[in-house]
Design goal:
single chain; 65 residues; little secondary structure; 1 helix; 2 strands
Length: 65
């Protein structure tokens, strides 16, 4: 992943891959965690929905899950 070259591997059987991208996570304990929107999708969604941008808030640092 971090190497300089792409590596292509032909698989005998295809593998399904699901990639999820989210900037908010509701935990089972109640708190909602917010993460940086690295790709700017939240701004695009706000614009498409006709919403005004949310005010900037201090967010906890990203955590690896």
């Amino acid at each position: 992943m971090n190497g300089p070259d792409d590596v292509h591997v032909r698989l005998a059987k295809p593998v399904r891959v699901l990639i999820l991208y989210g900037t908010a996570l509701a935990t089972e304990d109640g708190p909602v965690l917010f993460f940086d929107d690295l790709y700017g999708h939240d701004r695009k969604l706000e614009k498409l929905l006709g919403l005004s941008p949310a005010p900037a808030t201090k967010r906890p640092p990203n955590r690896s899950m």
